[in-house]
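Sequence, structure tokens reproduced for absentees:
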Amino acid sequence: MKIGIMGGTFDPIHNGHLMLGQAACEAFRLDQVWYMPNGNPPHKDIARYGTDAQDRAEMVRLAIAPYKEFRFEPYEIKRMEVSYSYRTMEYFKELYPDHEYYFIIGADSLFMLDQWNHPERIFPTCTVLAAYRDEINTRRAMEDKIRDLTKTYRARIRLLVTPLMKISSHELREAVKEGKSISQWVPEPVAAYIREKHLYIGEG
């Protein structure tokens, strides 16, 4: 099977994450996209957001439920240790060696990829799909970075053209804090869950 891996804090998951998964499925004919919330990421302080791992996991489950090609993957959120991408990808490559993996990242992550922990161990496990949105004039810079990474690590990296959605999880948390509706940006079950659990209300 051809499997897309979509990691992130998903705090909260929003329609842009779902559109990215759909774009990857269509462009690269993936059989599934696994949405994998990060339980203990090395680069973010989850505690300050006021949402625990189980809340973020449940929002992901609710968001992807209507999509038969999407799967919830709890591997990283169950781990107590800091989660590094190379360890996760090596784990899945060993567990399911017959699968072909596509690691989906944003443009900002592409430019930081060689600064991740052991990038040389990520590339042998997967093809990296770097999301690109036409409203940002970054395609040439991304292609230059891809050439550098390909030369240095023998990486397999492809550009993934994605739909335009100008929203971020940070902006959604701020909107909730300010009492604004976010229903146009997230699936309704996720919006309802945020209301029910009073998430993000007490952020500082």
